[in-house]
Amino acid sequence: MPGAAADVTEAETPPPGPAAPHALRVPAFRRYLLGQLVSNTGTWMQRAAQDWLVLQLTGHSGTAVGIVTALQFLPQSLFGLWGGVIADRYPKRTLLLLTQSLMAGQALLLGTLTLGGTVRVWHVYALATALGAVTALDGPARNAFLGELVGRARLPSAVSVNAAQFNAARFLGPAAAGVTIAALGSGWVFLLNAVSYAAVLAGLGTIRPHGLVPAHRRAANDVRLTDALRHIRATPPLRRTLALTAVIGTFCLNFQVTISLMAATAFHTGAAAFGALSAAYAAGSLLGALRAAGRSRPPSLRLLVGWAAAFGLLEAATGVMPTPVACAVLLVPTGAAAVLVTTTANTLVQLTTDPEMRGRVLSVYFLVLLGGTPLGAPLIGWIAQTFGARYGLVLGGAAGLLAAGAVAAARPAAAHPKGEASRGPTADGLRDV
Hints:
- With 433 residues, this protein is mostly helical.
- It has one domain (22-215, 223-430): Up-down Bundle (Growth Hormone, Chain: A), CATH 1.20.1250.20.
- The chain contains 17 helices and no strands.
- α9 packs parallel to α15 and α10 packs antiparallel against α16 (389-409).
């Protein structure tokens, strides 16, 4: 590419040798990653503080925690697919500068209300919904942006390393939130999160738009959601990946609800112990992300099913642990398995899709991963509140295990249809169960 910046040249030209090219060799990606790490740490601090605030405002209502989680993900169900269309129509860097600024404003307002002593549970509901609306646009753009930063050859590495920073933040955030809530209160957590967005905005600001590896951009009226849906329908491994992800996202990944209720009702502990349980799960998530980042070959659907089955078993077992310490210990491998499931699914989806369509297909992925939360989170919260917090974990794990078994038992397609499905990654990356 004549006249391209050094970052692009490095991203587009893999180094010689059999090893997969690593995304961290791209300077623009490193800067972006650092900003994301700081910002995501603040985000996970806010998530933990938000759940704890709702429990305080409602007298430890599991249903209320489920509702606020559902409201945060409801816009993903309603508008997430159009977020992918917008991500494919407009420059992703510009979209991210807008969405990250709006998220900072949401955190600032919630912090101001909380510190002022005027916060009510409906305020939390409304602001969670607003945050979800922005996230519906941010998610597809942010994940599709990785390909523009590093190029296709480094994309599997970028997805895995990005998952590692995300889960490093998940490890640091809840632990820091527990300490901050105990020392200063929830309001300061929200304000710290608002400040943390400055890091990701600064990182995006240092990335030159002409130094990216852009997808071929079609005219706006040629970017149709139906093209992405046809591509998914024509690719059996992609369909099965999305089906399994839908069950995992709806019933298994409700730890925002279940961990807070385990701390408050099953173990009768305070904010610090809640932060410790969340940190244990996050530590496992980080280990899982690092394991995924060290993988040198593209993942397979068979591998995804295996990790989903392991995750289901571990989540169910976590629900019957008798003490907080035992629960925390088992939350480590549970978190690792959860991240290996989502990272493997995300990589499969991105590698199976042309760059010009990646935002739309990723919007479908996030719809099935997060869009079921408005159903799953209140349901699991109600089950946990009615029958006990342990049942929320046990039933969630059972759902994941059954889904993995169903996908494994599904009859594989004899061959891929002609068309876009044949233009995916290597056979190893797409082989069926």
